[in-house]
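Re: Re: ligand-bound prediction request (bumping)

Still looking for help on this. To restate: I need the protein modeled with flavin-adenine dinucleotide bound, output as structure tokens. Inputs repeated here so nobody has to scroll up.
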Amino acid sequence: MNTGQPENIVIVGTGATGYTAAKVLRAEGFTGSITQIGSEQEATYRRPAVSKELLLGTKSVDQVRLGAPIDGVDVRAGVTAVAVTDSAVQLDEGDPVPYDALLLATGSRARQLDLPSSAHVFTLRTVADVAPLHADIERTGSLLVIGGGLIGCEAAAAARSLGAEVTVLEAASAPLNRIAPAAISQMYRDLHADNGIEMHTDVIVTTLEERGEILVVTSADGRSWSAGTVLVSVGAVPNTELAAQLGLEIGSGILVDAGMRTSTPTVYAAGDVAEVPNTILGGTYRSEHWNGAVDQATRAARSILGLDVGSLDVPWGWSTQHGVNLQFAGWTGVDDEYVVVRGSIEDRRFTACALRGDTLVGAIGVGYPKDIRQIRSLIAHGDRVDRELLGEDWLDQPHAVVR
Ligand SMILES: Cc1cc2nc3c(=O)[nH]c(=O)nc-3n(C[C@H](O)[C@H](O)[C@H](O)COP(=O)(O)OP(=O)(O)OC[C@H]3O[C@@H](n4cnc5c(N)ncnc54)[C@H](O)[C@@H]3O)c2cc1C
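Reply:
Sorry for the wait, this slipped through. Here it is.
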């Protein structure tokens, strides 16, 4: 081991970030101690499957494991890190674990709404959330989803496949509006309608009332909907409490540099909990997608070992609803202009570029994953585009292939 490398590394979090970081540490030859602490009883599974195969019941948790256990990693599943000092992590059971490098891979938790609690109101983030929600949907046969973002829409599609009557209520004027422009949101409204899902937008839910077997949800403008089961899917809150105890700088997440270093030299953060620099467009962002977790974990591990970390990947994510696989990449905003460069949104098979002025800032598409990879590579190079040339030929030219 090089001098200057830590001997005891503690990773808080057993999700994609924690698992990947441990794997990379060992792959890079780290022979010291690695302790991984995770609140969930089930460590290391693919969280994206929660709102898809696991909710549908088409796969078991054993079929969506992240990978094999990593040699010599002391995984403490079902254990919560409750406090942290500059040299040790205290747990809700057992002795404190000393560290000379700490990685906070604590991810996020489901955001709650201020509604009365009920045995038929759920959130969906972990594998432990799946069985009770699945059972309740099967029992009541109807689901009201509050929140038309990626997870809400995926859960709605899964519940519909289970045969439930499904209604989605979205506060904004369109579903998936954080990642998709109006025309693509509309495509998703149509896709859900074609599959028998009712969707209402501009709905600010204010009350929930249990009337016998039925839950009645009312909006600020006096409309109401009812169902046997309610899923609240209104985003996620990063788990920054341990970072706050250490006095780390926190913005929308734990602020880190491109090497995932926090404002304290021995402490690193990565994945959903981290707010990372955007080295291409400037500013910072939180990824909240799978690829960001894996990429940042890899860099955190290398950084802890004093190895070169390179630049962060251009983020990308995916979503599967009613068998349609959407991919999106980059850093898009509400004012960006979208240009369809292949296929058509109407046919639900397309690639669209997001432009800010003449700078390529993102991509979104269905059915052409190679296009999304190519556009990510162009974004990574900070490429400007001549909009007259945008189209299939432009995508198929060698310049659009990874350089
Ligand atoms: C339902 C769902 C579906 C998704 N689908 C997709 C998708 O289709 N495509 C995509 O790109 N992305 C998807 N994502 C996002 C992706 O799964 C996340 O970005 C990724 O899992 C984040 O990994 P992470 O390890 O940073 O955080 P997490 O997966 O949140 O893991 C953090 C872990 O840390 C634990 N923890 C937190 N605090 C403590 C503590 N104090 N002590 C001990 N343990 C602690 C938590 O319990 C948790 O197990 C989805 C997310 C969800 C919730």
